Amino acid sequence: MLYVFETMAIAADKGRSHTNKEVPEIEGYSKIRQEILDLQEALQFCGGATG
Asked: What is the model's pTM?
């Protein structure tokens, strides 16, 4: 999870797109996993628009 957040933060900081990373299942917290996946998608879209 740390790697996922770290790569998203670096991509956002540099305004670049990044490759989506595998987000593990979090038992009992499927909504959080989905939000992380959605955030990765949004960062990829924004990075691609500016990069």
From this structure: 0.75
